[in-house]
Write a sequence for this structure.
């Protein structure tokens, strides 16, 4: 995550298997002693997403645990087909959307309306003191605690993802309330978060007889929550239900794929340093009106506090029955960040809930705001989901 890049256009993947022992004792089954290994799988984000990487890691474990010899495994692979044939089709080719002029107009209006809802005025104070240095903080809740957390969320009609999304806003409101470096006027603006969505369930089936899972199928959407402190735990669960409603409104919208393509085109233009035209609805209304006063007010702030990657239950991918002699202890999903980056990742693995925060240690102010936010997240899980 730091230092020179190991991946490039000429080096699209990287695998490291390491051990602290110079001569692992399990070679040739000489001993039954347990040996710890670290496995590092690397690939550029444009080639795939977290689903691709975790599924590939699982398949690697299956191969390592296979009773077949190397020759038998090679014989089972069809090497007659050129590898270029196995490349995934263009992502857009699996996105089925109406092509009529009316449908395009409706999608454009929907996109503009969605932008108007992206209101938020909160951010961590950035101050790049030295070159970017990403660090990693982790909080793990054991199996008993995780079961209790999941049960509490279910009793309140939400998922753990909904609850954690709201918790980020609640913890931030407490950081503001106790900080001398953040203006109390910030309570008037809501908290805006952005989170990724797996688009794979919404894609058309692949035409390939042997489809690959190595492709990028993500988009993102935003969530908005009040920034003022809670008055009671009941308000926390009410906000969690609003998170659920906001998520469902996006994912189950008939225009969802339109939104996916729109955001993909926008990201692509930014990467190519091309202008991204965004219609100014306010200017359109205000300039064509004969009224003395503007019809629409000025733009509201649209600043995201941080990004969330809610990966879900990784035990659904890592089927331990396929490699019973392997004991998987933990897993981390991470990506290189820009200077001043911050990302919260959440998943369950081994029946445990894992919170992992990645942020640029040199990119924020010296007030300790990020550290207080992180401590508040762990304490908040205990307060609202384990009490």
């Amino acid at each position: 995550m730091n230092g020179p890049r190991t991946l490039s256009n000429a080096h699209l993947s990287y695998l490291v298997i390491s051990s602290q022992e110079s001569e692992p004792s399990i070679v040739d089954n000489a001993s039954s002693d347990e040996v710890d290994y670290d496995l590092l799988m690397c690939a550029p984000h444009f080639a795939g997403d977290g689903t691709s990487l975790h599924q590939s890691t699982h398949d690697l474990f299956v191969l390592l645990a296979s009773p077949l010899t190397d020759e038998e495994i090679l014989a089972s692979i069809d090497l007659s087909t050129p590898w270029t044939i196995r490349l995934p089709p263009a992502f857009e080719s699996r996105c089925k959307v109406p092509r009529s002029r009316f449908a395009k107009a409706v999608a454009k209006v929907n996109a503009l309306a969605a932008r108007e809802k992206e209101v938020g005025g909160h951010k961590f104070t950035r101050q790049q003191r030295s070159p970017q240095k990403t660090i990693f903080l982790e909080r793990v809740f054991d199996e008993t605690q995780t079961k209790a957390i999941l049960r509490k969320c279910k009793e309140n009609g939400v998922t753990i993802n909904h609850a954690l999304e709201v918790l980020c806003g609640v913890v931030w409101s407490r950081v503001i309330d106790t900080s001398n470096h953040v203006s109390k006027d910030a309570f008037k603006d809501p908290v805006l978060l952005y989170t990724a969505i797996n688009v794979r369930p919404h894609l058309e089936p692949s035409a390939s007889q042997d489809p690959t899972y190595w492709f990028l199928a993500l988009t993102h959407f935003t969530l908005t929550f009040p920034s003022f402190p809670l008055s009671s735990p009941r308000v926390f669960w009410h906000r969690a239900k609003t998170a659920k409603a906001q998520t469902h409104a996006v994912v189950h919208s008939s225009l969802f794929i339109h939104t996916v393509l729109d955001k993909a085109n926008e990201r692509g233009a930014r990467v190519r340093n091309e202008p991204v035209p965004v219609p100014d609805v306010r200017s359109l209304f205000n300039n064509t009106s004969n009224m003395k006063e503007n019809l629409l007010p000025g733009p509201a702030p649209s600043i995201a506090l941080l990004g969330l990657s809610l990966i879900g239950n990784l035990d659904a991918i890592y089927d331990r029955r396929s490699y019973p002699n392997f004991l998987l202890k933990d897993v981390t999903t991470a990506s290189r960040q820009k200077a001043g980056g911050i990302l919260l990742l959440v998943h369950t693995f081994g029946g445990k809930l894992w919170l992992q925060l990645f942020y640029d240690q040199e990119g924020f102010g010296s007030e300790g705001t990020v550290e207080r936010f992180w401590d508040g997240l762990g304490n908040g899980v205990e307060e609202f989901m384990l009490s």
Observations:
- Confidence is low (pLDDT under 50) at residues 26-30.
- The beta strands are 14-18, 38-42, 120-121, 134-141, 191-198, 218-225, 302-313, 342-349, 352-360.
- The CA atoms of residues 71 and 77 lie 10 Å apart.
- The first strand starts at residue 14 and ends at 18.
